[in-house]
Amino acid sequence: MSQIPVCSPLLSGNELAYVTEAVSTGWISSSGKYVAKFEKAFAAWCGVRHGIAVCNGTVALHLALAALGIGPGDEVIIPDFTMIASAFAVCYTGAKPVFVDAEAATWNMDVALVEEKITLRTKAIMPVHIFGNPCDMASLRHLAGKHNLALLEDAAEAHGAEFAGVKAGALSTIAAFSFFANKNITTGEGGMVVTDDDALAEACRYYKNLCFPLDAPRTYLHADIGFNYRLSNLHAALGLAQVEKADYYRELRIRHGLQYREQLSEIPGLVLQQDQPDGKNVFWMNGLAVRPEEYGRTRDELVAHLAESGVETRLFFNGMHRQSALQKFGCDCSGSYPASDFLADHGFYLPSGSGLRDEDIERVCGVIRVFACTDGR
Ligand SMILES: Cc1ncc(COP(=O)(O)O)c(C=O)c1O
């Protein structure tokens, strides 16, 4: 029985040729032609003018927040149902993340619950396009404008997702992507900040490289505290090759997502993520939540059975309000988050890599269909 991995990268273009070129010319650090080429190509693909490559998505978020001037005493509104990096990046600035429950249908931050979380300390709203499903950015833009808040996208999971025909990364003032190995476009480890704002782009370039002056000779005198968040030319070489085939990789993920949806939607007791109206979901991960009273088995029973059948899965994130790290940091973890709790307790994701074959998806869905116990348990 062959194993179906939860996600493995698809490197089907010029990746090896570009990395080989970088190695053979000795440009293996953060200087070298691939960094600038990758930045330019990815930003253009998103529809924005500036891309600032960094070494992972977590620091891309931190850099974007730092460039916006977020700091101690500030609050940033984020979804409760997200990956921990969204919250940690806010904590690195000294600001506090404030959580908003998920929306039951799209699994994104419930826009209707955002305004009640805004206080005098709120400086920014940071929506996350969960699993590649874009948020309702029209409503969020309206709220940000009304309360004079910065709006930045955590687009780590949403390469090529669209809302109202505009791509993720171009839907807010500044956005951050991850290129971790499981992402729709990958550099192994890597990230990028994208923005149309010249001053923010300049601030990101300055802070990402230890606050070395951007356009002056190096005196080794530093006026501000910066970070070393540079991406290597080796990783950028991978990234450029990936961006060259970005539309292809995006279409593969969408095709797989629609296949899963078609084959799973008729099985009682399985809750699937619904598309954001006016959005284009790029199905980074195909998740589902199990209602045991209808499916006849629990999430954990199904996950164990899939593992025995050679299908690798991952449990969903636990909500931010459940994180003792954030509680210790002084975040308000009280309150109730029923939609986020439901997803954390009943959800998991299925194999979703770009290299999945049709027969892999059929096998996974077949295992799930046959294991259902809907005859009155
Ligand atoms: C929503 C979200 N934000 C941030 C990150 C952090 O990205 P990285 O793992 O590249 O640091 C991830 C990683 O998957 C993510 O899912």
Summarize the structure.
The chain is of the alpha/beta class. Helix content is about 35%, strand content about 15%. The chain has helices at about 15-25, 35-45, 55-65, 85-90, 135-145, 200-210, 235-245, 245-265, 290-295, 300-310, 325-330, 340-345, 360-370; strands at about 50-55, 75-80, 95-100, 120-125, 150-155, 160-165, 165, 175-180, 190-195, 270, 280, 285-290, 315, 345-350.
**Largest sheet properties:** 7 strands, mixed
Helix content: 25-40%
**pLDDT averaged over residues:** 97
The portion of residues forming beta strands comes to 5-15%
Return the structural class. alpha/beta
Give the oligomer, counting copies of the same chain as homo and different chains as hetero: single chain
Radius of gyration: 21 Å
Q: Can you count the helices?
A: 13
Extended strand count: 14
Q: What this model shows, in words?
A:
Helix 1 runs antiparallel to helix 7, helix 3 crosses helix 6 and helix 8 runs parallel beside helix 13. The chain has a 7-stranded mixed beta sheet, with helices on both faces. It has a 4-stranded antiparallel beta sheet with strand order 10-12-14-13. It has a 3-stranded antiparallel beta sheet with strand order 7-6-11, with no helix packed on it. The chain is globular. The protein has 13 helices and 14 strands. The mean pLDDT is 97. The chain is an alpha/beta fold and 377 residues long. It is 37% helix and 14% strand. The structure holds pyridoxal-5'-phosphate.
